[in-house]
Amino acid sequence: MPSRKYADGEVVMGRWPGSVLYYEVQVTSYDDVAHLYTVKYKDGTELALKESDIRSQSSFKHRKSQSSSSSPSRRSSSRSRSRSPGRPGRGRRRSASQSREHKDDKKKAIQETSLALPAVLILFKPSENNTKRYNGEPENTEKNDTSCIILEQKLKPDLEVKHFEQYSLRSRKDEKKKEEMYSEKKIFTTVKTIEKAPSKTKELEFGGRIGTFMLILLLPATVLYLLLMCKQDDPSLINFPALPALESLWETRVFGIFLLWFFLQALFYLLPIGKVVEGLPLSNGKKLQYRINGFYAFIFTAAAIGILLYFQFELHYLYDHFMQFAVSAAAFSLALSIYLYVRSLKAPEEELAPGGNSGYFIYDFFTGHELNPRIGSFDLKYFCELRPGLIGWVVINLAMLLAEMKIHNLSMPSLSMILVNSFQLLYVVDALWNEEAVLTTMDITHDGFGFMLAFGDLVWVPFVYSLQAFYLVGHPTVISWPVAAAITVVNCIGYYIFRSANSQKNNFRRNPADPRLANLKFIPTATGKGLLVTGWWGFVRHPNYLGDIIMALAWSLPCGFNHILPYFYVIYFICLLVHREARDEHHCKQKYGLAWERYCQRVPYRIFPYIY
User: Fold this and answer.
1) Contact in structure between 174 and 20 (CB atoms under 8 Å)
2) For the region Disordered, what residue ranges are annotated (predicted)?
3) How far apart, in whole angstroms, are the C-alpha atoms of residue 391 and residue 294?
4) Predicted local distance difference test score (pLDDT) of residue 104
5) Which of 45, 87, 107, 574 sits in a 20 to 30 Å window from 606, CA-based?
């Protein structure tokens, strides 16, 4: 086995991949198996280089001395041969100090132009893109980091411009030609063109075309099955419910009420209240603006519901027609998905979603072809993410509470129903209060708006997440106060982990220099971001997922243990988060490379400490 040539901590010259430029780097580690050196550039970039791409500093200094040590006699004879006796001697009138100043200015200009190149390479690497609904993608996440490689290949002629005069491996004559042919302006123009070039989705998720086609059929069927099971006296898995008549699943009045609800939330979204913030940079460098007024929309909705109850509107109408409301929401989400896909066919290439641009109709229809579809300033994806479905979830829970009181002739709701409503209300209010955090999630930054998100936001969230409250109406469960207190403690623990972990991540992402985060340690990466290794993110890799699962368990415990149906949400949520965690791991490994491997060695557990 060959021995290593350079020691850890040694300062050497490392070749930038795809170019002939050498930069001063520091050796940080050596892989005995792959025979690769991990080096760190002055801007913090870490790369793995072969030994052939590393040279000692002395070799460059030696070359510089050779190139500048030509004898005076040779320079003199060269000048004498290149100028005829009859030509005016303008060059002779220039003083030696003027000549040195001219050379120094030229060298400074070359260095300033060349020093911009590494910054370009780092600047145009993709930043980011999954957590549940709004809680934000973990800092250790994202997508294929291939733009840097493409950029290096496309700009290879341009990158051969001299970085430092003594560090170039080409002759001075060739380098001078390159300087004349490729200016700094052309380099940045080429970079801009490459960034706008669309990239096709190569790695298909959810089983590809066949898997997404099956999901389009199975998701509505699953919602229908769960709601029919809750209506039965014995909602066991072996007791398959009878299918209702098709005409009983549709009612025009119910569909009209759903449309009224959707457009009422759209009206609240358009109100000129709340601050306007910028999202993360898109692939073309632009930042979209979003109005943060979801909590105000919740307050206005609560006031409207209070007025309806004051005038004795029977809100339990929702319970009586729950199946029809679910079918109406599913029909609307399908129509919205069709509209979104049709309009995406005319969208500019740079506005397409990186995860939904495969070229396959079914796959792109499901995952979403356009990243941020907007009607004017009305962002359809951002609106649906938190408004109609999430606020509707709270309204449905309230309707179930009132239906329980009416059906069972109760003067006040059961303790189980109060716990379920309270826990899930806290979750929704937290989401709306921290609405700005949704702008950093993969739902916003990476996933397109198609059937997956449209159905998830408008059908799955309000009608499946409210499953515990719907179950308790037909299957009342009595719990004691000590049991209720224990369940409350479980929910508080999950919420604390969930909120504190997301706050650490979001604050670190927004402003790593925040003095409040001075105690947090992180591993620097080649993308310019850091991987937190202290706090919750040094405990497990996805602490926000851990908090989510603990809360989901607390929501189901008030339903007792007579049937597994109320725990469907917990099982589903564990499967969902394990899938997302696997996707995050894949993206992070591709994006952060060796830095992610170091992070995984530092934080070995993914979601459950000492288990997984």
Assistant:
1) no
2) 53-110
3) 9
4) 52
5) 45
pLDDT confidence band for 25 (50 / 70 / 90): confident
Percent of the chain with pLDDT over 70: 75
Query: Whole-angstrom distance between the N-terminal and C-terminal Cα of the chain?
Result: 36
Per domain, the residue ranges of the chain are 10-57, 206-478, 480-611
Which tops the pLDDT comparison, 44 or 559? 559
Q: What is the phi/psi pair of residue 358, to 5°?
A: -85, -20
Compute CA distances 480 → 108, 403, 417, 486, 490, whole Å. Answer: 79, 22, 13, 10, 16
Q: Please give the model's pTM, rounded to 2 decimal places.
A: 0.68
Longest dimension (CA), the chain: 118
- Mean pLDDT score of the chain: 77
298 confidence band (pLDDT: 50, 70, 90): very high
In whole angstroms, give the CA distance from residue 527 to residue 524. 8
Q: Are 469 and 505 in contact (CB under 8 A)?
A: no
E strands present in 380-512: none
259 within 8 A of 332, measured Cβ to Cβ? yes
Identify the sign of the CA torsion 587, 591, 593, 595: negative
- Token pair for 601: 């060695």
Question: Residue 572 — very low, low, confident or very high, per pLDDT cuts 50/70/90?
Answer: confident
Residues 6+ apart with CB under 8 A from 90: none
Q: Which fold has domain 10-57?
A: SH3 type barrels. (2.30.30)
Q: How many angstroms separate the CA atoms of 559 and 572, rounded? A: 17
**What 3-state class would DSSP assign to 569?**
helix
